Here is the input.
Amino acid sequence: MCSSLKRIIDKFSVMSVEDNLKPSIAIISPSDVEVEVKKIEEELHAHQQLEGEKIKSILDDVKKLWDFISWLRIAEAQGVWKAKTCRHSINDRCQAWNISDPDRVGLPPDVVQVNQDGTKNVWVGKYPHFCIACPLYEAKRS
Ligand code: SF4
Here is the structure.
């Protein structure tokens, strides 16, 4: 298996809910994955002499990755839409959640705003991924 493919498969291997809360979580963006998948395709072309079965197996894995990228793009679009239309998003910052320990949930430090009273809000305009699965979404009232 080529090294790029192994890296991506390792990234997407099944994790427990607890694993997802650990600070070591990797933030994945569709464009990062696209670059990796394109590298894999280039490696495949460079190794045309591989046996047919191996190539078929790798191409199957590449197809799964493209499917996953599609899913990521949909999730990302949902996050962007929610971050823009949620009534709790004020000046691009979520006022609904106070994240006491941003490291624990894997939030990058540059997307967390620390307020004077010590509360911490997420800058959803910059990090809309936070909104993707949020149960507190409410549409802005016009
Ligand atoms: S969807 Fe959730 S995380 Fe996003 S702004 Fe609204 S309340 Fe905050």
